[in-house]
């Protein structure tokens, strides 16, 4: 927690105000990433154009390797499926999101 706080530019006490452990921080990141995927779908649904054009935009957004959000999302999914050290809550959220 000390290293995380230092990297973020916060005191360790400040980080503990919001998170009890590194596992809780990671689980929060997974929740945020899972929610971001849903927000992308909501955004695509509101775009102008035909349904096919909106689906095309969404597909490109999820597959675009230059998309920072998608790179982070893929990394989180990979980590939750490949590491034994991942908190069970984070694994459950990632599994539900993958469907």
Quick recap:
The protein has 99 residues and is an all-alpha fold. The protein is built from 6 helices and no strands. It has one domain (20-98).
Task: For this entry, give a set of tags.
elongated; 6 helices; single chain; 99 residues; mainly alpha
Walkthrough of the structure:
- This protein has 99 residues and is an all-alpha fold.
- The chain has one domain (20-98).
- Helix content is 79%, strand content 0%.
- It contains six helices and no strands.
- The chain has helices at 2-8, 12-18, 22-46, 51-63, 68-82, 88-98.
- α3 (22-46) packs antiparallel against α4 (51-63), α3 crosses α5 (68-82) and α5 (68-82) packs across α6.
- The protein starts with a helix and ends with a helix.
- The mean pLDDT is 82.
- Please give the count of helices: 6
Total tally of structural domains: 1
> How would a textbook summarize the main sheet?
none
Query: What assembly state would you assign to the polypeptide chains in this entry?
Result: single chain
Mean pLDDT: 82
Gap between N and C termini, in Å? 32 Å
Shape: elongated
What string, H for helix and E for strand, traces the elements in order? HHHHHH
Radius of gyration: 16 Å
Which residues sit in consecutive blocks of at least 5 with pLDDT less than 50?
Answer: none
Kindly name the structural category: mainly alpha
Into which percent range does the helicity of residues fall?
A: over 70%
- Strand proportion, as a percent range, falls in under 5%
Please tally the β strands and state the result: 0
